Amino acid sequence: MSITGEANRIGWQEAGYDHTVIERLERHFEQLTGQDRIQCASYLMAKDGKVFADGAIGRLRYDEPDAQLRTDSIRRIASVTKLFTAAAVFQLVERGKLFLRQPAAEWIEQFKNPMYERITILHLLTHTSGLQADPGYYLEPYPMSWWNILFAYEPETEGPFAVTDEEEIEKQRKSAWIRAVLSGKPLTAPGEQWCYSSAGFSLLGEIIARASGMPFEQYVMEHIVKPLGMNRTFFEVPDELHGEVCVINEHEASRLKPGDWKYAPPRAGGGLYSTLGDLHRFGQMLLNGGTLDGVRILSRKSIEKMTDNALDEGIRAFAWGGDVKSISYGIGATITAPGEWIPEGTFGHEGAGRCKLLIDPKHQSVIVFFVPSNLDWIPESMIGTQNIIGSGWL
Questions:
Q1: Cβ within 8 Å of residue 47, ≥6 positions away
Q2: Mean pLDDT of 254-271
Q3: How many angstroms separate the CA atoms of 357 and 80, rounded?
Q4: pLDDT at 1
């Protein structure tokens, strides 16, 4: 099933793409699904705003063998959400409400401590704050994150140290996750190392909420998702669309049920669901310098800042065993450094090893693919897919 009308499509010849590579990509997905290494796969390739190839294969749900993935199926996009968070920060920078080198302590009082007061919004956006990295980042044998110790920061309501003032109880409950994130000492001083931190993006979501005066999720929907016409992108998927969401296990299925987010952190590090077509629209906006269909989301200058290397030479990243001596990274976006397979200057983001959005200015192309899997890491599904797609330009 096509996700776009014929007017928004072109042929592979017009796109300047080798059709045998599209066939190779589909055989690649057939092999991975046939081996049960991935549950399903879908992809979209576009040039100059028009789709020239898309497809889907495999099961939509882990528990329904007959339900097939489609090109318009909804899927959790995990950390691709971070690009939306970065876009929201830049919108507020453009409106004079935030600035990149502003200390986080100016918005969140728990940062007013010698250990944290030097951390800026820029540090949070570039994963150089020194705050705790995602569990497993250092290949530690027993990963633990802030939510494992959250109970220690909940207000005591019984016993000799019970908090009795209702206003104080509410304040402590709302800030418990922040205090849990900031527990212990930082991994490094700000700006010294690249330590991938989704918790840092949750804090950005809190700053966005305070600067905008509305919940982070509401801000993203009203100022980015809806203006772009992304009609199948949600933080909370409507009940009537649950049957169109790709899920790979019982845990993912349970996450579709409405939850109580009153005391939870903003879902700025990985809370969105979307589709190939909607992510193409978002990526095309970035490729166009901040506009799509006459609607401006960001300024050209913001896109340039987001996608230029923001790190000094020699910033090290352990990166799940990669031990990169000098990493390149944009402001909220991954960027392609010299020597990598896809063209230098390509930017975007990966989500939990199961989806990717790539924006390629050299070929004026937007690439999106989903490769859902119950296995932790399948390099062929991510790196292999990316390399196959990158080899097709004529």
A1: 10, 15, 16, 17, 363, 364, 365
A2: 93
A3: 7
A4: 38
Q: What is the pLDDT of residues 283-312, one digit of tens each?
A: 999 999 999 999 999 999 999 999 999 999
Q: Which amino acid is at 13?
A: Q
Using CA atoms, how far apart are residues 270 and 352, in angstroms rounded to an integer? 9
Could you tell me if residue 33 is inside a domain? no
Would the CA dihedral through 234, 237, 242, 248 be positive or negative? Answer: positive
Query: What are the CB-based long-range contacts (under 8 Å, 24+) for 134-142?
Result: 134/196, 134/197, 134/198, 134/199, 136/320, 137/195, 137/196, 137/318, 137/319, 137/320, 138/318, 139/320, 139/321
Q: Give the type of residue at 349.
A: H
In a domain, 375, yes or no: no
Domain holding 341: CATH number? 3.40.710.10
> 357: closest CA among 297, 276, 294, 295?
276
Task: State pTM to two decimals.
Answer: 0.96
Residue 93 structural domain: 56-345
The full length of the chain comes to 394
pLDDT in tens, 144-174: 999 999 999 999 888 888 888 889 899 999 9
Q: In this structure, are residues 10 and 47 in contact, taking their beta carbons and an 8 Å threshold? A: yes
Predicted confidence (pLDDT) per residue in 66-113, tens digit: 999 999 999 999 999 999 999 999 999 999 999 999 999 999 999 999
Using DSSP's 3-state secondary structure scheme, residue 146 falls into helix
> Is 270 within 8 Å of 296 (Cβ atoms)?
no
From CA 282, how far away is CA 271, in angstroms rounded? 16
3-state secondary structure of 93: helix
- State how many domains the chain has: 1
CB count, 10 Å around CB of 61?
21
Section 233-240 average pLDDT:
97
Contacts of 125 (CB under 8 A, 6+ apart): 86, 89, 100, 204, 310, 331, 332
CB count in 10 Å sphere of residue 9: 17
In a domain, 111, yes or no: yes
The answer to whether position 371 is within a domain reads no
